[in-house]
Amino acid sequence: MQSGPVTAKSAPRMRLDALFRVTSPSEAPALASQYEEYGVSGLWAAEKDHDPYLLLALAATRTHKATLGTAIALAFNRSPMSIAYSAWDLQGMSGGRFVLGLGTQVRAHIERRFSAQWDRPVERISEVIRSLRAIWHSWKTQTPLNFEGEFYRFNLMTPEFVPPQMDHLAPPIYVGGVNPRVTRMAGALCDGFHVHPFHSKVFLQRAVLPNLQAGAAAAGRSLDDFVMCSSAFCVMGDTREEISTMRESVRRQLSFYASTKAYRAVLEAHGWEEIGDRLASMARERQWADMPALISDEMIDAFAVTGGVDEIGGLLKEKYAGLLDRVAINHGPEAGSAHHDDRLRAIAKAIAG
User: Fold this and answer.
1) Could you tell me the pTM of the whole model?
2) Considering the domain boundaries, does residue 26 fall inside one?
3) Pairing of strands 173-177, 326-331
4) Is residue 158, in this structure, part of any structural domain at all?
5) Each residue's pLDDT tens digit, 153-171
6) What is the pLDDT of residue 12?
7) Is 108 exposed, middle or buried (0-12, 13-18, 19+ CB in 10 A)?
8) How far is CA 233 from CA 23, 33, 55, 269, 306, in A?
9) Total number of domains in the chain
10) Positions of the chain with pLDDT under 50
11) SS3 labels along 175-232
12) Is residue 132 part of a domain?
């Protein structure tokens, strides 16, 4: 690795992606087709209230160019073998457009919502990734499977359980995270990284990139082909009133993230830890309505991009040049909202230009 100022690799043009959110899975094919028509380069499905693999399988039936990925799917609530089958099938049916994005979630959800194991999450997700690659290698090369790890063991794969061969490489694997250890692990082992939407340019420069580079250096690998992705809070509108209303909505959302201990590293990059402590205390007392008042305009400017609809695309490019390869709008024009089609097309055109 080269020494000197911490910067991201030089990259091709930034791409505009979309967070793939639906009320019902039945909406997925048509919505995916619409997004591709708007000029969106990728669709990312999160594991929240639907199975992300199912949503992307449906999206694959009506899209032809867009990247289809999980951002993120949970790594510990399924056996890696189950993940391997889903990802392999999606890579095949999408024509090689699938990206497997994994994350650890937090202990309470894994242990109490899924009744699964969460301990030592960085070591565990690292082993999930290595076992997935071992499984895919066995399928691709038709050689015996023999993976022995600390958490997982896979040593049985008879021919009738090997999926059909496909004319594509195994899916790339990204991880999502905030804290240094998982970021270093991503630099050492993964093909890309999903930066949490609660971030700033300063956090990317001072924390994310140095840790990715440290992990890559320790593993003796280059980040030249590594892909950086995130979604951005966007405060936009056609009028000052619309922008002001959205700004207050973003302020409320930021107050929630800033109150959460798991994201304290983001505040530390700015010296705002005390605000995080105060917000955490207010959250424990359920003082939700009072929390946004602690999010200053300076903080909104650090964590969000603000401007007219015709400006947002250029502002995103300016903020994330050399830092992100792919960006989605986290808080902005949602499908079905007024002017959604025209707005998204304009932003996609500005970013691609």
Assistant:
1) 0.93
2) yes
3) unpaired
4) yes
5) 999 999 999 999 999 999 9
6) 60
7) exposed
8) 21, 24, 24, 18, 9
9) 1
10) 1-8, 11, 333, 335-336
11) EEECCHHHHHHHHHHCCEEEECCCCCHHHHHHHHHHHHHHHHHHHCCCCCCCEEEEEE
12) yes
The closest alpha carbon to 270, from 305, 251, 296, 249, belongs to: 296
Closest CA to 73 of 132, 137, 135, 157: 132
How far, in Å, are 66, 93, 170, 330, 345 from residue 97 at the CA level? 7, 9, 10, 22, 22
Take residue 279 and report the two structure tokens written for it. 């917000």
Task: Give the 3-state secondary structure of residue 156.
Answer: coil
Q: How far is CA 127 from CA 130, 177, 213, in A?
A: 5, 16, 20
Tokens coding 220: 């003796």
Taking only the tens place, the pLDDT of each residue in 3-13 is 333 344 554 67
Note the pLDDT tens digit of each residue in 40-54: 999 999 999 999 999
Q: Shortest CA distance to 151 belongs to which of 180, 184, 117, 104?
A: 117
State the Cα–Cα distance between residues 148 and 128, nearest whole angstrom. Answer: 11
| pLDDT at position 253 | 94
pLDDT for the residue numbered 3 = 31
CATH code at position 73? 3.20.20.30
CA–CA separation, 151 and 195 (whole Å): 26
Tokens 């250029």 belong to: 314
What is the reported pLDDT for 332? 55
DSSP string, 292-340: GGGS-HHHHHHHEEEEEHHHHHHHHHHHHTTT-SEEEEEES--TTSTTH
Task: Name the residue range of residue 66's domain.
Answer: 15-235+306-352
